[in-house]
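Q: What would this chain look like folded?
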Amino acid sequence: MEFITATEAPAAIGPYSHAVVRNGLAYCSGALPLDPASMALVDGIEAQSKQVIKNMAAVLEAAGSSLDKVVKTTIFLSDMGDFPVVNGVYATAFGEHKPARSTVQVAALPLGALIEIECLAEVE
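A: My prediction, written as structure tokens:
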């Protein structure tokens, strides 16, 4: 088992790894829409969606994977009304690659985020 810390992603805000690699898979913790330099949330659901995917991509790269190797994602939203915007950003980021996905509304997310995404990806 290999514990991954991605230097290009925001620091973990708790006692966890960005990802754990085991048996050819990267189990990625939920990515938040934090700017890695300032550790501040970016504003608005579109910007937060883009930042989450950017942060997730940085974690995947550190784990030896990439967005095109993602097998499954789970999207957590504080408001399901944001789904159309999130879905558009997600579709653009993943293109023709369409991993399995679940999307759920939650009561709240860490630091007041509007979105969080976790994923499982193949590692070469």
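Helices lie at 45-62, 83-94.
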